């Protein structure tokens, strides 16, 4: 099992780090204002991802019919149908999106991006089916190969174009290669079936995920829209860089945790072992706390020095905000544990309430900015809403999943306390990145140990699954 975890972490990290490197290279090669325009492509990219959030990839892992060839072909057919519809919708919305962001001259770029949901919908679902039996290689290569080629293409594109178009064509190239790589890595022949019964079942499973995808789009991109529209493209360039630096490690860690726990939770439920599901779910919850804290500590130590090393003074105004942005991303990681357990149980509505709470904070942030607020106010309001959403997610887990959160309380108190210290130390002048004072260095070294000591279910899960005497999982599930 340890080998599987290391494969997941290294594979997801490799792909995400390459995409991070691509974004950083683009930011270095083009002006800040152009990077602000490029950051709007992330908004459109999120719209693409939102339009495909029907949970079909999770469904093929979670469903008892996940190994059936016709079921897989029907999911692939449904995926392609939705991808074509999403592409047509994005093409139609290109003008309004550009107008909303007050850059109407860029509308053509959003029309080009309309091809991206179509390309994404052509991915072969075998890469997800194989992860049912913990065979992650095809899925990781499908993410890694396009990321590498997209990174390598940036410098030639910058020499040729020299502006925001570099990011546009790098993104399109990534999606095209993702579809191609998934087809190459598949074991089964690619088939498409339109089965109304399976599509209806997918709609029942996926409509809450689609609605949640819309909420996530509004939540994660709403702040950018507010900043870009009201504070300008330079401010959006700064904010977009902060999100890039903090979101990338968030995605690496949260995705790896979901890839690990979702098959294990689903297997426990298929076996009818509710007790194993509950203990594994609690371990997933506590793992998300540890991962979120590690993310904050990494930004605490490396954030400002990395920003200075990469860009000099170009993004200097972002430095004080980084740890606060990291705190918001950490809380999003916290929520990934309850979300994964809910998906394993087929309850896909649990993520809605936490994201509705986060969405409700956007009008407040917009009003504060209109009254003279700054990026600080946007970030602080977002962090408060994320915390409220996480508490709602825990309450839903206890009520709807049957996972009592009482054993979570010690770890939760420790995680929130340590996170608060990470926010306070820079304010009182106890850290300066890698050259920080001894209290900060000791804090970074001791914090993960303290949290592990407070998370008993996670320790027992690790002892059971990562012991040298633990047998490898079978290659195929029954």
Automatic annotation (TrEMBL):
The keyword DNA repair does not apply. It is found in: Cell membrane. Its main location: membrane. The chain crosses the membrane at residues 80-101, 139-160, 198-219, 231-254, 289-312, 375-397, 409-429, 435-454. GO terms for cellular component: plasma membrane. Keywords: Cell membrane, Membrane, Transmembrane, Transmembrane helix. It comes from the Bacteria. It is a multi-pass membrane protein. The keyword Iron does not apply. InterPro entries: Poly_Biosynth_Transport (IPR050833). PANTHER family: LIPOPOLYSACCHARIDE BIOSYNTHESIS PROTEIN WZXC, PST FAMILY PREDICTED COLANIC ACID TRANSPORTER. Belongs to the polysaccharide synthase family. This is Colanic acid exporter. It comes from Tritonibacter multivorans.
């Amino acid at each position: 099992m340890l080998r599987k975890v290391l494969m997941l972490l290294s594979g997801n990290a490799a792909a995400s780090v390459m995409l991070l490197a691509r974004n950083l290279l683009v930011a270095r090669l083009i002006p800040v204002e152009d990077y602000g325009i490029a950051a709007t492509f992330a908004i459109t990219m999120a719209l693409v991802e939102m339009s495909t959030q029907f949970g079909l990839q999770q469904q093929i892992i979670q469903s008892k019919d996940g190994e059936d060839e016709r079921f897989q072909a029907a999911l692939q057919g449904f995926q392609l149908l939705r991808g074509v519809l999403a592409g047509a919708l994005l093409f139609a919305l290109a003008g309004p999106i550009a107008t909303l962001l007050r850059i109407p001259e860029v509308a053509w770029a959003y029309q080009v991006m309309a091809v991206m949901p179509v390309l994404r919908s052509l991915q072969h679902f075998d890469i997800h089916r194989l992860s049912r039996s913990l065979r992650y290689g095809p899925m990781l290569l499908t993410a890694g190969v396009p990321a590498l080629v997209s990174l390598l293409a940036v410098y030639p594109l910058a020499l040729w174009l020299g502006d925001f178009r570099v990011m546009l064509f790098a993104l399109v190239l990534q999606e095209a290669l993702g579809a191609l790589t998934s087809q190459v890595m598949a074991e089964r022949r690619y088939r498409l079936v339109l089965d109304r019964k399976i599509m209806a079942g997918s709609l029942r499973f996926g409509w809450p995920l689609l609605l949640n995808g819309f909420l996530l789009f509004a939540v994660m991109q709403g702040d950018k829209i507010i900043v870009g529209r009201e504070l300008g493209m330079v401010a959006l360039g700064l904010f977009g860089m902060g999100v890039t630096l903090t979101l990338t490690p968030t995605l690496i860690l949260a995705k790896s945790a979901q890839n690990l726990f979702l098959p294990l939770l689903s297997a426990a439920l298929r076996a009818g072992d509710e007790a194993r599901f509950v203990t594994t779910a609690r371990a997933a919850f506590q793992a998300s706390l540890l991962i979120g804290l590690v993310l904050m500590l990494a930004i605490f130590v490396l954030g400002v020095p990395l920003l200075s090393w990469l860009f000099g003074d170009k993004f200097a105004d972002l430095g004080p905000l980084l740890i606060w942005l990291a705190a918001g991303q950490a809380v999003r990681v916290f929520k990934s544990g309850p979300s994964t357990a809910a998906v394993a149980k087929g309850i896909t509505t649990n993520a809605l309430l936490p994201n509705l709470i986060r969405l409700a904070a956007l009008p407040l942030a917009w009003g504060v900015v209109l009254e003279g607020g700054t990026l600080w106010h946007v970030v602080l309001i977002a962090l408060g809403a994320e915390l409220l959403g996480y508490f709602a997610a825990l309450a839903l887990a206890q009520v709807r999943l049957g996972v009592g959160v009482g054993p979570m309380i010690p770890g939760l108190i420790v995680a929130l306390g340590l996170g608060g210290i990470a926010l306070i130390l820079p304010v009182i002048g106890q850290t300066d990145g890698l050259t920080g004072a001894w209290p900060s260095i000791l804090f970074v070294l001791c914090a993960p140990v303290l949290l592990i000591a407070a998370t008993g279910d996670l320790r027992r899960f690790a002892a059971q699954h990562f012991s040298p005497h633990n047998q490898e999982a079978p290659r195929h599930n029954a």
